Hints:
This protein is an all-beta fold. The protein is built from one helix and 18 strands. The protein has two domains: 2-197, Sandwich (Jelly Rolls), CATH 2.60.120; 210-286, Sandwich (Immunoglobulin-like). Helices cover 1% and strands 42% of the residues. A hairpin with a 7-residue loop joins strand 7 (94-100) and strand 8 (108-109).
Amino acid sequence: MWPEDSCTFESGTEIIKIDSSYSNVWQIGQPSKLNFNSAYSGSLAIMTDTAAAIPVNSDSFFEAIYTMDEFWFIPYTFVLSFKHKFDTEIGSDGGYITISFDNRQTWHNIIEENFDYGWSLQPSWCSDNLYSPEDTLVNGESGFSGNSGAWIESSFQYGLLPVKYYGDTLIVRFNYVSDSVQDASEGWMIDDLVLHFVDLGGETRFAQPDHGFAIYPNPAKDYISIITEDVRRPLQFEIYSILGEKVFEKDLILDFETVDVSSLNKGNYIVRLVSYRQVKSKKLIINR
C-alpha cells in the first residue's frame, strides 16, 4: 500500500471543503484546548473549534473530495487513513464518517454492509480502529464516541468502487453531532489524512486478474474477495497451509465472490483454483 495524496492541514488544499452553514464547528488551526493542545504533525489540524466549547445541537461536517481525473485508481481501490483524537459524551456526542459515490445524492455510513454498489468491499471487513454498529450517537448514527486518550490511527478501504458509473467524484464526509446538554467535551480532532493506492495482492488490479484470478486484500484479515476471469467452470477454490493441509474449500459460481477466512490463523497459505484438470496457485497471507 502506497500513499498517493496526503493532507496535513498546514497549507491550503482543494481536496478539503468545510461546511459553510452558520452552525459549522469545524476549523483548521492551531489547537488550544486543555487536552487538544497540539496537532499530530506540524502546528495545524482540523477540529471541532480550535478553542471554544462545542455548542449544543451541533450538526456539521467537512468533506474530503477525490476526483477520478486526478486519482485514476479510485474505481478499483480506495484506502483512507487518518490520525485523530476524540473527547465526547459517550453514547451521545461524537463523530462519524459517510461516503457518497454519486455526487452527494446519497450518503452511507462507512460501516454499513447492507447497500449494493456493484462489487464493493465493505470497510468493516478491511479496516483499523473504526467504530461499530453498536456505537450509537444522538442522531441514531454509529460513530466515534467517548475518549480516545492519545492519538490513534484509523483507516478504511473499498475495492471495485462504482464511481465510474455515477460520476467522477468520490466524497468522504466527516460529521460531528452533539446533543442538547452543554458539557466540557472537546470534540474531534483530525490530522494527516492520507489517500493510499493498493497493489492488489502485489500482482494485479481488479480489472485484470493475473492468470485467471485475483485475491483481494492480500495480506488479509477476516475476508477475501476472489475475482475470476475467462476460467472454465466448475471451479473449486482451496486454501492449504504451508504443511500441505487443506484448510478451506468452496465451489465458485460467480465471477466475484467474498469468502470469510476469519477461522484461519495468522500466517502464510497457498490458495488453489481448480478447473477441470487445470490448477492455478497463489500465495495468501493472513495478517491480523
